[in-house]
Design brief:
The chain contains 15 helices and 21 strands. By secondary structure, it is an alpha+beta fold. The longest helix has 28 residues.
Length: 535
């Protein structure tokens, strides 16, 4: 029996490999010509360390230096040793480019076009090599607009095992894909798309779920519901679906069908426009009930515009509830001629403007209606939020993974001047520590940030630098660490030892030190977070 393993890379690309009986993930990956990080192949170096987000497996044999018991408990694994016991989703600590792989391009034929309203169009496509396309429920693809060299990003609204592939698009004046779909698209047209992409997808179900969707942000949620139905779990799942106007609410019949076919599924919907005919007027947060949040033991999946994401986050804070996991995908406004992203809007009427102003006044957040000539480029932003300590651990693990990538691009290549600067930054970061106490935590925060940014500045890879900046590790430290007192006493020694390994060109030692330093940094932040919350 074989299993599907999703390899989710840091740049959003996801590739799938099939693992046969007793076959390791690493062997299956290399058989598929996907070069995931790998060195010893014996479970001794930890080079291939990955995070398993979903599924079960036999971890195989390895030594403590490669994978600690604490890391294994958190879900980390070694692809060179692990053999799947179910389908898996793994976070791979490198980009698809470094792994010498890429998202695949497919040629599709439009089979159906559904005009739900003036603002929303759905369409379906089929591809001849459907078995080759594997994706996770919630992911998206980049579709090339016919007659142009421009592409737009849309989430699948159908599940990974459906024969047809469907999408939802919100129409905006001036949008390339919007105008194509509204004015020219016909059944039989050919489209090309590339994917799958994105880290917004359904994780392994271990607790109740709360799904939140705004407008055509319903698309990935529909894909998630389709998968939940196939899985057949009895865990409760509730959806709250919101729109600005009645024309933005679609697929209610589909949702009603899930109330009959998906155990313990329920949904509500609301419309912000006070003149709406919907049974609930207002915003998704007005429909939250204590049972939906389950005292925080709930996985939240949200796809909607930034004000919706921020309103939900604020609501959680006001209620004193921290979800076990909060996964979100938010989209911004579109540029003229650019309707990238699944959610767009048409030119608003005076009545719609008035409703939006009322919505903004009630929420304290801007409500975008779009315009005939908007100016801000549209894009997706995908993220996750977890309880503070778990979030901090995840950020430092991600930093470690990126630093291991930067290591490969810099060790043995730094000039004498760069090595001297690296040592100076390491020494500066130790000046604010005496044994296991900060003498000046605020100063350490700044010097430490400069030390860790150094390799990303030197590696010559802007993608790695951007990924590091998006982690916002320094921002987290500035919020929490500036008033801290305790520090793992190994932290300053780690910095100096890492520099020494670079000076000697000792790649293995540098890798081990970066990994162990991540653990010391996490311990320091855990204590700082606990002290910060007590204060």
């Amino acid at each position: 029996m074989s299993f599907q393993v999703a390899l989710s890379f840091e740049d959003g690309v996801t590739r799938f490999v099939k693992c046969g009986p007793n076959e390791t993930v690493a062997d299956a990956s290399y058989k598929a010509r996907i070069n995931i990080p790998l060195d010893c192949r014996d479970g001794a170096c930890g080079t291939c360390k990955a995070l398993c987000e979903s599924g079960s497996y036999d971890g195989g044999d390895y030594i403590e230096e490669a994978l600690t018991d604490d890391e294994a408990e958190q879900g980390y694994c070694l692809p060179c040793q692990m053999t799947p016991e179910s389908d898996l989703v793994l976070q791979i600590a490198t980009t698809s480019d470094v792994a010498k792989t890429a998202a695949t391009t497919y040629s599709a034929t439009i089979t159906d076009i559904r005009r739900f309203s003036d603002s929303t169009i759905g369409f379906s496509v089929e591809i001849p090599n459907r078995d080759d396309l594997v994706f996770l429920p919630g992911q998206y693809v980049n579709i090339t607009v016919p007659g142009t060299d421009q592409s737009r990003s849309y989430s699948f609204s159908t599940g990974p095992n459906d024969e047809h592939l469907s999408f939802l698009v919100k129409i905006t004046e001036g949008g390339l894909m919007s105008e194509y779909l509204r004015d020219r698209a016909q059944v039989g047209d050919t489209l090309e798309f590339t994917g799958p992409l994105g880290s917004f997808f359904l994780r392994e179900r271990k607790r109740p779920a709360l799904l939140l969707a705004g407008g055509t942000g319903l698309a990935p949620i529909l894909a998630i519901l389709a998968t939940m139905q196939e899985q057949g779990s009895d865990l409760p799942v509730h959806l709250i679906y919101g729109g600005t106007f009645d024309r933005d609410i679609v697929e209610l019949d589909t949702l009603e069908g899930y109330t009959k076919s998906l155990p313990n599924f329920s949904f509500d919907y609301c419309v912000a426009d006070p003149d709406s005919a919907a049974p609930n007027k207002g915003y998704v947060t007005s429909l939250f009930e204590p049972k939906h949040l389950n005292d925080g033991d709930v996985d939240v999946y949200l796809c909607g515009p930034p004000p919706m994401v921020e309103a939900v986050r604020t609501h959680f804070g006001n209620e004193g509830v921290t979800p076990a996991n909060f996964y979100f995908e938010k989209f911004n406004n579109s540029a003229a001629g650019s309707d990238q992203g699944a959610v767009q809007v048409t030119e608003p009427t005076d009545a719609e403007r008035a409703a939006a102003e009322k919505a903004s006044a009630e929420t304290g957040l801007p409500v975008s209606l779009g315009a005939a000539n908007p100016t801000v480029a549209d894009n997706y932003e995908i993220g996750e939020e977890h309880p503070p300590v778990a979030e901090s651990d995840a950020q430092f693990d991600a930093r470690m993974a990126l630093e291991l990538g930067a290591l490969e691009l810099t060790i043995g290549r730094l000039t004498d001047a760069q090595l001297a600067e690296f040592r100076f930054l390491a020494e500066a970061s130790t000046a604010s520590i005496e044994r296991d106490r900060f003498t000046d935590a605020a100063a350490f925060t700044d010097t430490n940030a400069a030390f860790h940014e150094f390799l990303f500045r030197c590696c010559g890879n802007p993608v790695l630098l951007e990924a590091y900046n998006r982690l916002e590790v320094t921002q987290l430290m500035r919020r929490v660490l500036r008033t801290a007192q305790w520090v793992d006493e190994q932290v300053p020694h780690d910095h100096l030892k890492i520099v020494k390994a670079f000076e000697r060109g000792n790649r293995a030692a540098a890798r081990d030190l970066i990994v162990s330093h991540a653990q010391h940094a996490k311990e320091t932040m855990r204590r700082a977070i606990e002290d910060h919350e007590k204060a």
